[in-house]
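Troubleshooting log. The previous structure file for this entry was overwritten by mistake, so regenerating from the original sequence record. Sequence copied from the archived sheet and checked twice against the printout by T.R.
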Amino acid sequence: MEILDPKRTVAELKELRAFTADENGAQRVAFTPRWIEVRKWLRGKLDGLPVETHTDEAGNFWATLKGESEKSLLIGGHMDSVPNGGWLDGGLNVLAGVEILRRISAQYQGKPPVTVRLVDWADEEGARFGKSLFGSSACSGHLDLEEARGLKDKDGIALPDALRNVGIDLERAMDSGKELKNAAAYLELHIEQGPVLLDLDLPLGTVLGTYGVERHAITFHGQAAHSGSTPMNRRKDAFLAAAKMSEEIYRITDRHGGVCTIGSCTTKPGIVTSVVAECRITLDQRHLDKDALARMLAEARDASGRFAREGGVTVSWERLWHIEPILFHETLRAFCDEAIVATGAKTHRLPSGPLHDAAEVARAGVPTVMMFVQSLHGISHNKIEDTREEHLEQGVTAFDKLAEKTLRWIAG
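Regenerated output below.
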């Protein structure tokens, strides 16, 4: 009987890296020729397994091992990457799932008590068109079609046209929701992408859920004036008011936790000989608790108004994006803890700051949990992204134990 082989997963990850990376990192951007090659390679890894494969209306790839029950255990991830990305982000999830399919097929002679399905979600990263979670949000019913129709990449290619080039009709993407009809649980393994487990010297962690996000553009409106002739006490400097927000967002997180980031700052007229007339900053706020997130947003709004009044300028806000916090299923979180402990590790529960496809599946009402593997350097979306091989192998082992516990739970 074939048993689980975590070393094979690591070897396949290295194989994936060998043909999809260059000196700058991984190059597996969704809806590109390289992404199509990766999908073909993935299908090859499923050869010999009694699975049915197909691609749904949103471009998500499914491999289904039919069981005695139509109730399904879903194991998912994504093979696409950001440009110049790391070798583990996304690929680990899917290739660990391939290995678990091999183990389950062998153990149950190709007929497990429930159906087991592996999914490679399309365009988790959103690297080309700036909108993450395309395939999973279409499947969950949360894709904004009107917004998607207007998205373009840096070369001016529209998302609907790029999708059409790889055989996907945007107008039918939401039909992929039928794939979740019999879904009883969803599991996802991922590198942490941050330093929490590294700092705790722990190989694995159970994910509590994904942060809710409030993302806004804040624009301060002042008065352009000559840099040399305008006294300091007579200026209406939009940049001065905006700059005060930078320190304030740290005070806000000191009070409430979570994270806040000012990610960009643009000024007008943008010349050294003029006081800034307009300053636009982008604010990203994240928290696992929806009430705390709401308080963080309210305090940021109040602060911007206070700084505007102090500087004799005005301020306006524009919401760019929002998603509520997603808490994962408590029974599955307990299974995840048990699976980690069964490998000899101490478990630790932590939230996910980055978004993942798991959040969209959970939004669709499917019991969901994620398991994290420690990230060296606490860095991802970068060619130096890495994890110790022994931790990768331990992660695959623990994830398999989680899958078996969940399978039996679904079977009753």
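The mean pLDDT is 97. Archived copy saved in two places this time.
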